[in-house]
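Appendix B, record 7
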Amino acid sequence: MDRDGFNGFSLPRLGDELGVRTPSLYYHFRDRAELLAAVARGIVRQTVLPPIPDEERWEDWFVELTVNFRRAALAHPRATPVLLQFLPRDVMTDLYENAAVLLTRFGDLEPGRRVLLLDGLEKLTIGTIVVEAAREPGGGAFGGVDPEIHPRLAEAADAQPEDGEEFFRQAVEAFVRGVRTASVAAAPPA
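Structure tokens (predicted):
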């Protein structure tokens, strides 16, 4: 998958790569879709889980987890379509349940805001993965803006961190802070 990408992937080619005949693959996988789902599951499972945080650090835990998921996925940029099409809900749902338990124990988010946080982080991360996997190396956000035509946007683009991971980290931190702030503001007075 990493070499040929989604469009170049085929069971015969995989069989050749593994030194087995294509029918042997069907001993382990019912069809191509099941094999691709296993690829997506393998990518997600490469996400490094941060240590369980203490109460004051739950926001940092979500930032680290999200950055780690982006890192795991972008280690296989040519597999991005597989991750999109076969996002392993079974693995993700278990992870989200554990995250919801953390939020219940440590966070000050009501249940609806917990879903907003989890779903929003997933969408932010998947969207980032899609954009960054397709982007030319070194082409940051608004990288080709002409400063003569769009001077304020060019100035803002120049002020962003060079490192895409750091830029993503800042976006995730802003999102998590925003959800928490909105939740605290919406909470009834004690």
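Remarks on this record: The mean pLDDT is 86. The chain has one domain: 5-186.
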